[in-house]
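[job 0417] fold request received: ABC transporter ATP-binding protein
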Amino acid sequence: MSTHDPGGIGAGSEHGDEHLAASGRADSEAADHYLPGADVDEPALIDVEEVRPELADPQLVDALVAPDRAVHARMGEPLLQMQGVTVRFGGLVALDDVTFDIRRGEILGLIGPNGAGKTTAFNAMTGVYRPTSGTVMFDGASLGKAKRFSITQRGIARTFQNIRLFNEMTALENVVVGTDARHRTSVPGALFRTSRHRREERDAIDRAMALLEFVGVGGRATEKARNLSYGDQRRLEIARALATEPKLLCLDEPAAGFNPAEKESLMGLIRHIRDDGYTVLLIEHDMRLVRGVTDRIVVLEFGRVIAEGTPDEVTNDPKVIAAYLGVPDAPESEETTDAPA
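[job 0417] inference complete; emitting structure tokens
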């Protein structure tokens, strides 16, 4: 765990201010190599250390990426609470009185067989669905009927099972879009390019480049998203979610389609994200990955919570084993009857 106060006001700011003062900002000659819209006919790998020498320092990158906003929940206290949440679609009950919490500073795994309600729970947290009954509390306040953009601004960011990137934009531009959730410039301010707008734009490029380096794709900042490998697109989507400065990062099956080596690398990245001050919710089918990276696991089956605890406790729970592997049929009784006389 990092030594700075993750999520506290000004976390990492002492390093970030030094960086911004020394970097020459995005209008420097070096920064032109990766500015959005730069005239790059054939994008090639960027030498990040040449463009931004300070990003060669992993500790500085971690400080720049660390969440820099107030979080009311203390470490280990509930950050998000699902309180008796039920979601119905007509006569179908997708979630049935679901209650669990996500504690600040942990990696929580949400697992269950196909159709168990995992993605529905995810969508209820992030505003895609509104609960039929029950309450979703986040950092001490009810999400109520908050719109999705408002939930993002409050501090919940997510990725998707199916990658959703702006394919014709560069990797850097995709992440810069994410930083807009924290900008305060008005539409007229952007049109007239006020000093605040120019400052936020420069800061967005600085932060976006640090995030790309943090997730391991800094060298591909000027490549269009559609040209990235599948694994790099997954990492880019995580970087864009982190650009919103979330208090809670929700990852929906981030290892889908990965080979074992890529999954191992992803586990390292998820741990790194948590250690840098973020709270993580993970939906994943790969039990080896879930066991290797989570602190606690919640198990859903048919829309209900059937188990909750540490990875060892959950994977040895008979109800969980039955949900994943099934229960053998009881042997038929071998009653014999006398033949009629």
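[job 0417] notes: The first strand starts at residue 78 and ends at 89. The chain has two domains: 13-69+159-281, 78-154+295-325.
[job 0417] exit 0
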